[in-house]
TrEMBL record:
Gene3D superfamilies: 2,3-Dihydroxybiphenyl 1,2-Dioxygenase, domain 1. PANTHER family: CATECHOL-2,3-DIOXYGENASE. Residues 8-127, 168-281 form the VOC domain. This is Glyoxalase. It comes from the Bacteria.
Length: 281
């Protein structure tokens, strides 16, 4: 278990995507990502460990393409347990002829990027040794070339079968319309800023993880949220540690005029750029 994705921290655990073509999406998510459908109906819950959903898919009524220059998902990031798993995954997507749209050694992680069948960005990564993440309290995140050769070689005798069950949603990265407004919101949720790229992107975490949440203004400033029936992110879920913590967040959100709607054991809120978040315990 990743110590940065467990009690008592708050961290993203899953996300729901609205899709245009549910059959093609299910094929992508089971065959390429290697997730397993654990519940089906109106929505389909897909899991790595056969217990907890990682990605939830649903086709909305009258779906439309997400307009450009709107807020929402930049990418979500799947964190694998080991470098061997990352190497196996690279070999697997190459076998399946899925286009790798980018890759980098970020210092804190080794990552490559693909898109799902409807253009949602997916990062697949492993963390490096946490000892080297912060130097004099400063997060050292860089963009160096990814060692594809080394990773693929490491896994050359292993066959990819499915996503490992210890896989987690490592972080989520959003397009926002305003950095400061969102900084205030995520700080209220109890996240601390780990890195600031001025006028560009901010990164937030709990417990000194490099980042659980990133957001940027690369789609433009003062851009609107997409329409309800646009494909893409429906919501993402943040797990908080205790019922007390959840109640405290509900109170703080209300005090600061953010949406805080209690539904069963959860709180539904929205970040200032209109991305829906479900808080669970
Ligand atoms: Fe990322």
């Amino acid at each position: 278990m990743s110590k940065y994705h467990t009690h008592p921290l708050s961290y993203p655990v899953n996300l729901k995507l609205k899709v245009m073509d549910i059959d093609r999406s299910l094929k992508f998510y089971t065959e390429i990502l290697g997730l397993t459908v654990i519940e089906e109906g109106k929505e389909f819950k897909l899991s790595a460990d056969l217990k907890n959903p990682l990605v939830i898919l649903q086709s909305p009524e009258n779906p439309v393409i997400k307009p450009p220059h709107t807020t929402g998902l930049y990418h979500y990031a799947i964190k694998l347990p080991s470098r061997l798993d990352l190497g196996k995954f690279i070999n697997h997507v190459k076998d399946k002829e899925v286009e790798i749209v980018g890759g980098a050694n970020h210092g804190v992680s080794e990552a490559f990027y693909i898109e799902d069948n409807e253009g949602n960005g997916i990062e697949i990564y492993v963390d490096t040794d946490e000892k080297n993440w912060f130097v004099n309290g400063e997060l050292k995140m860089v963009t160096d070339p990814l060692d594809y050769k080394g990773l693929m070689n490491l896994a050359k005798n292993d066959k990819w079968e499915k996503i490992p069950e210890q896989t987690v949603l490592g972080h989520i990265h959003l397009h926002v319309d305003d950095l400061e407004k969102n900084a205030k919101f995520y700080e209220l949720l109890g996240f601390q800023k780990t890195l600031e790229l001025p006028n560009s992107a901010y990164f937030y975490s709990q417990g000194k993880y490099h980042h659980h949440i990133g957001f940027n203004v690369w789609n433009g400033r003062n851009i609107p949220a997409p329409p309800e029936n646009a494909i893409g992110l429906e919501y993402y879920t943040i797990k908080v540690s205790t019922e007390e913590k959840l109640m405290e967040l509900e109170r703080k959100l209300k005090e600061n005029d953010y949406l805080a709607e209690r539904k069963d054991e959860t709180i539904i809120t929205k970040d200032p750029s209109g991305s829906k978040i479900i808080l669970i315990i």
